[in-house]
Write a structure and sequence with these properties.
About 45% of the residues are buried. It contains 14 helices and 22 strands. It is α/β, with parallel strands linked by helices. The strands form six sheets. It has an eight-stranded mixed β-sheet, sandwiched between helices. Strands 3-2-1-4-5-6 form a six-stranded parallel β-sheet, sandwiched between helices.
Length: about 400
């Protein structure tokens, strides 16, 4: 798995994480954590303990991290190539997930009897641990004391969560979910997240308006821009609700996604997600729908005479959410996908819809924005027009997210 195109605009692009996977049934979640980190452009180097190898395989870690997996403290090859000292200091952050009671005890006592514990003793980089263990082990005075010792030394902790466990007990001790661990990693590596505590609503992709059970009206939107915006806002700390039409994209990590098909469904989900601090309407919503959807497949008529379709307007989601009222977001951003007179049409749309900003882009065939990897946009506000250079859609998303953070203060 490779990092997404335009990854240099992602929150963790170019950052290096040394991930230590210790023994425990929760070790399987480390695989998802690696996927999320790689999706953010992060370089991940894995260390697998002997006990951890009982639950996940080196091959699985290697396939997802796209790098060598280290396990042996006394490997002549590894010591010759890198060495445990260099390995412990080559990362920006050391993450232990899951962190067992045994490994936490070693860390507190300064024991270095295997590669993982030696790396943790030798590192000069920040350390984040994600504990996972039986509830009795978590509540034991020894574990409580060990965590207090580690916290006093500056070790960061995420979790654990409370819930049912593999041992059929219930309580605190569950490994935090990978998106929560990812958020903790981002907070440590990226620093202050200006949208923390804010709620963002984003729409993405096309809508599909049915004609009959097998046909529909749609467009060529891929959802790449909207999904990238949702991910960029989440990376800046926002709680993001993404309402997505049908796309062939994975859900962005750390984002609550509502999947819909039609414009009416998209409007309903948007209204349900309010209130929000900011709403970004990047979806390419169909302007019309069929007035009466056929119950059965429309058959081809003799002589090839095409059927006549009566169309009616779809709900105007942007205009609806932009209406003044207590549930209106503080900032409403619309998109204008145009093929001609891009700026003039975008400025007219800004006035007509009642939103605060319009992101205008040329979706003609020559522009290649519709379904492509790059975009060239203009940010249209009441203050004027900003012309942004052509860049990867992830970079557009990052720049827009930063502008939103600055506007919301």
């Amino acid at each position: 798995m490779t990092a997404a195109a335009g990854g240099d605009s992602l929150a963790l692009a170019g950052r290096r994480v040394l991930l230590i996977v210790s023994g425990g049934i929760a070790g399987y979640k480390a695989l998802e954590l690696i996927r999320l980190l790689r999706g953010q452009g992060c370089c991940v180097t894995c260390v697998l303990t002997k006990a951890g190898a009982q639950f996940v395989t080196p091959l699985s870690l290697q396939a997802l991290s796209e790098g060598k997996v280290y396990a042996d403290l006394f490997s002549l090859t590894d010591e010759s190539e890198m060495g445990h000292i260099q390995l412990s200091r080559s990362a920006d952050l050391v993450v232990v997930a899951p962190a067992t009671a045994n490994l936490l005890a070693k860390m507190a006592a300064g024991i270095a009897d295997d590669l993982a514990s030696t790396l943790l003793l030798a590192t000069d980089k920040p350390v984040l641990v994600a504990p996972a263990m039986n509830v009795r082990m978590w509540l034991h005075p020894a574990t409580v004391a060990n965590l207090a010792t580690l916290a006093a030394r500056g070790v960061h902790v995420v979790g654990p969560d409370e819930g049912a466990m593999a041992c059929n007990e219930h309580g605190p001790g569950r490994l935090s979910e990978p998106p929560a661990i990812l958020a903790a990693i981002e907070a440590l590596l990226v620093g202050k997240r200006p949208l923390a505590g804010r709620h963002a609503l984003v729409t993405s992709g096309p809508t599909q308006e049915p004609i009959d059970p097998v046909r529909y009206i749609a467009n060529r939107s891929s959802g790449r821009q909207g999904h990238a915006i949702a991910a960029a806002l989440a990376a800046l700390g926002a709680r993001v609700t993404l309402v997505s039409g049908p796309v062939a994209l994975p859900d962005p990590p750390g984002v609550a996604v509502r999947h819909v098909a039609t414009a009416a469904e998209m409007l309903a989900e948007c209204e349900a997600a309010l209130p929000a601090d900011v709403a970004v309407f990047a979806a390419a919503v169909a302007d019309w729908r069929v007035a009466a959807v056929a119950e059965g497949k429309i058959k081809k008529q003799p002589g090839g005479v095409p059927p006549s379709l009566a169309l009616v307007p779809n709900p105007d989601i942007l205009a609806s959410v932009s209406q003044p009222g207590p549930r209106r977001p503080h900032l409403v951003v619309g998109f204008a996908a145009e093929t001609d007179d891009v700026l003039a049409n975008a400025q007219a749309k800004l006035a007509r819809k009642g939103c605060d900003w319009i992101v205008a882009n040329d979706v003609s065939a020559a522009g290649g924005a519709m379904g492509g990897e790059e975009n060239a946009v203009h940010l249209v506000t009441a203050s004027g027009v900003e012309r942004w250079p052509r860049m990867a859609k992830q970079a557009v998303a990052r720049q827009l997210a930063e502008r939103i953070a600055a506007a919301l203060g």
